[in-house]
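Handout, section 4.2: multi-component inputs.
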Amino acid sequence: MGKLEGKVAVITGGATGIGRAAAKRFIDEGAFVFIFGRRQEALDAAVADLGPNARAVKGSVSDLADLDRLYGAVKAEHGSLDIVFANAGAGSQLRLGEITAEHVDETFDTNVKGTIFTVQKALPLMGEGGSIILTGSSAGTTGASAMSAYSASKAAVRNLARTWAEDLKGSGIRVNVLSPGATATELAKEALGEEGQKVFASMTPLQRMADPTEIGAVAAFLASSDSSFMTASEVAVDGGLAQL
Amino acid sequence: MKKLEDKVAVITGGSSGIGLATAKRFVEEGAHVVITGRREKDLKEAAAFIERNVTTVVGDVSHLEDLDRLYAVVKEKHGHIDILFANAGAGTIAPLAAATEAHFDQTFDVNVKGLFFTVQKALPLFKDGGSIILNSSVSNVLGLPGFSAYAASKAAVRNFSRAWTLELKDRKIRVNTMSPGPTETPALETTTGLTPEQAEQAAGQFASQIPMGRRGKPEEIAAAVMFLASDESSFITGVDLAVDGGMAQV
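Output:
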């Protein structure tokens, strides 16, 4: 029996990369998964691959009406929700001196405001035994050139979990942060190129980038009762990148 | 397939509490375990509880010759090690003004020196690609009156995992720290020097400081150790995994 048997999960940014790998793993463990993303084509491809225990809802986490539609669909089909993996994120790069208001707004709208409302709007459907997982980043505790808005937004995400563990006291709902390091998603491989991937691998104590399935495995741990005494924690899945 | 099928695991301090629950879980997941403890009677009871695939070695991690004996048994019986949970710890309570040299020495002998050599002496038997888990404590980042030596020793443990991550990376051995919060184990009553009434009071006080409103169960800590021992955590190394109900996180 899978460790998420009969559970209902929402994964934002679930059509590709880490979200997609987590969706596959959750389904393998017995869950029904709603993936949420902005591109219909990517969602269709994901659902075709993930099979009958996946549904797609198109939308953006920075648009509250889209989130209402997402949870409306969950409620209509399942009535309740056990797991939220608030994973959608944005991260373009601009050095200090070049930063624009649009860049800051876009980064924080998706990573911070989007995460807040992804979780807040899920709560009416959640109860005892629920698990919320927020995608942070090794960038949340390190400095990297041109990443100031992104890393600040991910530090904010890490701190949301601290407050929410207190706000959710007594509800039986846990909230933790999963902070990946360099991960070899299709998007990252394309953006970094061969050379860029080598640089990230060499910076990482494990001397390689993560496979998205390795991040999905940790998301499944945090979603399951194996992490039942963990809340407000941050689990770094970064090959040691930000740990030493 | 089980997560630790045919893996060989060594667990120090395996006769009670977190160590025992972890040994039980490892065996359920398919591993063979070798557990150590200082009292033969407790080890025998632990072995009976674990039921199968368990070997016991009496010994104290602060005695290096005991560690040599432990690893000689492991070598003879299994030939190698895949997983090490360096879990044995000591923690009597003593306020700064009243602490004795013996208190300080015992705390650091077991928690720091004992753990250091537990890992060092395991290395010749360690399979490349294995997993080492060091038991630290939420106190590694918290101030708790009466626990200063303990907390400092556990901060030392957390930092071992940083250097060792680098020292062992070429062998693909992952090294992580796991930091439990207050847990429902016999230790609070048996090792801290508290009376049963004081222990009960302390347990209640801890629960009130934990966002989850309760202490952890040994099985919950064991589940997290299992995660770090298995390939589920294949991209996790050098971390301090807090399993503390939020106690040191908020």
